[in-house]
Amino acid sequence: MPKKVHVQTTINGEAVEYLCEPRQSLLEVLRDVLHLTGAKEGCNNGNCGACSVILDGRLVNSCLVLGAELEGKSLETIEGLAEPEQLHPIQDAFLENAALQCGICTPGFIMAAKALLDQNPNPTEHEIRYWLAGNLCRCTGYDKIVRAVQDAAQTTS
Amino acid sequence: MENFAYVNAADVEQVPSLLSDDWTETKMIAGGTDLLGELKEYIETPKKVVNLKSIPGLDKINADASGLAIGALVTLTDIAAHPTIQHHYTVLAEAAGSVASPQIRNVGTLGGNLCQRPRCWYYRNPDIICLKKGGDTCYAVEGLNKYHAIFGGGPVYIVHPSDTAPALIALGATAKIVGPNGERTMPLEDFFVLPDVNPQRENVLEPNEVLTEVHVPQPKMGTKSTYLKVRERGSFDFALSSVAAHFEMSGGTCSKANVVLGGVAPIPWRSVEAEAALNGKRITDAVAKQAGEAAVANAEPMTDNGYKVTLTQNIVSRAAMRLA
Question: Where are the domains of chain A?
Fold first, then answer.
C-alpha cells in the first residue's frame, strides 16, 4: 500500500492537518476526511463546478485537485463564508433572488461568484455568464443566478 | 481510482530518474485536470505519480527582446491575462483564454495543455481497448466519428484537443524537453507525431522525458495574429474546429502567413494550402475566401464529420479577414 500523505494547510483561516491517500481528491478529503460537506460531488470530472472552492485565491474544481496538493496552501470553502450571525452578501443575494431550487449547485455557484467579485467587483452580465460557464445548474435556468451575482456586486462594491 | 505513490520532484533534472521507461508505471501531474480524469476512469493506473508543481521556477513567464519563455507550469489563466502576450502574441492569449472553464484554466498548465490526451469517446471508455490503447482497431472508423479527424487520420482518427498548440506553432515556438540524457529542444511543430508514426502517442516524449519550457520568438513589427474556435457550447468546450493565424504584414500585404488548425487532425495541422493562398497577397474578401477553400481542399471527412469541412473553411476565411 502506498503510504498516506500528511498535509498541513489552512482552511477558512484555520490551520488544519490531515492524512489522506494519494488517490483522494480534495473533494473527497473535504467531504470524507474533514466532514466539510458544502462542496458537492456532481460530475466528478470538472464539468459541473458543484465542488468549486477557492485555492490560494483561485477558483478550482476540488474534484480535479488531489488532497495531497493542499500542503502549505490556503483554501476557502462555502463553510467559511458566513459570519456566525450574518450571511455573506452573495448568499443573501441568492436568497433574495431565489437563485436556487434543489440547491446542489449553489455552494459551487456562490464560491464562483465570490472568486469573480474578488477580482472584478463590477462585472458585466456577459462577464458573469462567461465566468459561470464552469458551473452547471439543472433547475433554475441561470437567469436568477446571474441577477443574484449582479445584486451582490452592487452590495459589495 | 487505483492508489499510487505520490512523489514531489525537487528539480527538473530529477524528474527523469523518478519516471519509469514504461508508460504504464509512472505519470506526471501538473494541473492534473486531464490526468485525474484518466485515473478516475481507469484509463491509466500508474504505480507512482510524480508531482511537477514542487519544482521551483517552472511557473514563470519571461518576456524580453528575444521573445517569450514560458515555463511548463504556467497556468492558462496567467497566459491569457499576461499584457505582453495579449498585445504581441495575441493568438496565444486568445487560445489560452478559450480553454475550458475558469476553474480549469486556473490550474491547467501550458505543459499539460500541450501534452493532454485525446478526448475520443472510444479512447476515454475504460471498457474499450482501442488502437490508441494497444488494441488493434480504431473504432471511430466504423463507429461514431462526429468529433474525429478530417486531416491526417489513419490508423487512428483522434483529433488533438489542444488550443495553445496551434497558437504556439503559428508563432514559431520551440519546445524544451528534459530526459535521462539531458536536454533537447525542437520546433514545437516537430514535437507532435501523427498516428502513422506512433498510434499510441501524440508527441515525441519518451516515458521518462518532461516538457519543461516553450520559447516563442518575438514577432516582427507589423505582425498580427488571432485564434478562432468553434464549439458546440460557446462558453466551455473543446474545439470542433479552430484556427490559429499569424500574419507578417508589410504595407498592407501579407508577406508570410502561418495558419495552423486545431480540432481537425491528430496533431495541430498546419495548412500549407491556406498559407500559399495568402502569402504575398493583399487580404481582400476574395483572397480570404480562397484561403478558406484552399484550407479544406485536401480534407478527408469521415461518415459523420463532413460539417467540419465547412466550419474549417469558414473560420479560416474569417480569421484572414480579421487580420486584413
Answer: 5-80, 89-156
Q: Which parts of chain B are beta strand (E)?
A: 5-8, 26-29, 48-51, 61-64, 67-71, 174-179, 182-187, 210-217, 223-230, 241-250, 253-262, 269-270, 281-282
Distance from CA of A69 to the nearest CA of B (A): 9
Q: How far does B79 lie from chain A, in Å, by closest CA? A: 15
Give, in words, the CATH class of A89-156.
Answer: mainly alpha
SS3 content of chain A, % helix, strand, coil (to 5): 40, 20, 40
Q: Under an 8 A CB cutoff, do B33 and A64 touch?
A: yes
Residue among B162, B112, B153 nearest B263 (CA) = B162
The residue behind cell 518532461 is B210
ipTM for the whole complex: 0.97
What's the rounded Cα separation, in Å, for the pair A6 and B124? 32
pLDDT on residue A140: 83
Architecture of domain A5-80: Roll (3.10)
Cβ within 8 Å, pair A58-B77: yes
Tell me, yes or no, if the pTM score tops 0.95: yes
In this model, does residue A29 exceed pLDDT 80?
A: yes
pLDDT digits (tens, 9 = 90+) for B217-274: 999 999 999 999 999 999 999 999 999 999 999 988 999 999 999 999 999 999 999 9
For residue A1, pLDDT beyond 80: no
Give the B-side interface with A, CB within 8 Å.
1-6, 29, 31-33, 36-37, 39-40, 49, 51, 53, 77, 100-104, 106-107, 235-236
Mean pLDDT across A123-133: 97
CATH 3.40.50.720 for domain B223-323: no
A106-119 and A89-96 helices, crossing angle to 10°: 130
Query: B243: closest CA among B217, B271, B222?
Result: B271
Q: Do A66 and B36 touch (CB under 8 A)?
A: yes
* Mean pLDDT computed over B108-118: 98
Tell me what the mean pLDDT of segment B72-92 comes to: 98
Average pLDDT (A145-153) is: 98
What does the domain layout of chain B look like in residue ranges?
223-323
Give chain B positions within 8 Å (CB) of A131. Answer: 102
Q: If you compute the radius of gyration of chain B from its CA atoms, what whole number of angstroms results?
A: 19
